[in-house]
Amino acid sequence: MSETGFGAPGTFSQFDQPLGHVEDNGSLVPVHPGQNADNPRSIGPACTVHTTLNDYAKYMFAHLEGERGIPGILTVASFQFLHTPVGNSTYALGWGTDFTQTDTLGPVYDHTGSNGRWWATVGLVPGLNVGALMVTNVATTAAQDATDEFGQLLVERLANSM
User: Fold this and answer.
1) Of residues 10 and 118, more confidently modeled
2) Facing residues of 123 across strands?
3) Which domains are assigned to the chain?
4) Which of 48, 74, 50, 49 is nearest to 61 (CA)?
5) Which tens digits make up the pLDDT trace of 129-139?
6) How far is CA 59 from CA 53, 65, 111, 116, in A?
7) Cβ–Cβ contacts within 10 Å for residue 25, how many?
8) pLDDT tens for residues 2-35?
9) What are the b/e assignments for 33-69, b being 16+ CB within 10 Å?
10) Contacts of 74 (CB under 8 A, 6+ apart)
């Protein structure tokens, strides 16, 4: 993952990356790289990561392979630990887990991240070696709802195609 870093993507005063946006009085306002373009460092590093779609795909493949028993950047045991729900919850160390589709799809894992200017959500179905990534450069409720609905639609379509 050579195109991954911390802080907002891009260079201050240059338009070399897409900009994140915030909502202000019903309008979307671009946020240029700089001091207010990302979460505070105090909640990093995880909450201040940016990456390209290519590098995010590598991240997804690593988790899919780890769950399928193929070691890579971590051991298989480490991936299984990351994907195991804590206690009686559906939360597994950064991943949401859904075992309701187990008969048709196997377990489904999801992760969402945002800095209030970008929104990303990923779903993984290791049993089918399938993943989907949905990203927006705005983190409004509408953007979140749209990616959630699209993700659910993809899971339903996968389940119905089995």
Assistant:
1) 118
2) 110, 132
3) 4-9+20-160 (3.40.710.10)
4) 74
5) 999 999 999 99
6) 10, 10, 12, 22
7) 5
8) 888 888 888 888 888 889 999 999 999 999 988 7
9) beeebbbeeeeeeebbbbbeeebbebbbebbbbbbee
10) 62, 66, 82
Q: How far is the C-alpha of 63 from the C-alpha of 130, rounded, in Å?
A: 11
Report whether 23 contacts 141 (CB < 8 A): no
Distance CA 133, CA 34 (A): 26
Give the pair of three-digit tokens for residue 27.
Answer: 């309008």
Q: Please, which residues have CB within 8 angstroms of residue 78's CB and are 6 or more apart in sequence?
A: 66
Here the tokens at position 55 are 């590098």
Count Cβ atoms below 10 Å from residue 11 Cβ, excluding itself: 12
Q: Who contacts 2 (Cβ-Cβ below 8 Å, separation ≥6)? A: 55
- Rounded CA-CA distance 162/158 in Å is 7
Tell me the DSSP string of 74-127. S-HHHHHHHTSPPTTSSEETTEEEE-TTTTTT--EEEEEEE-SS-EEEEEEEGG
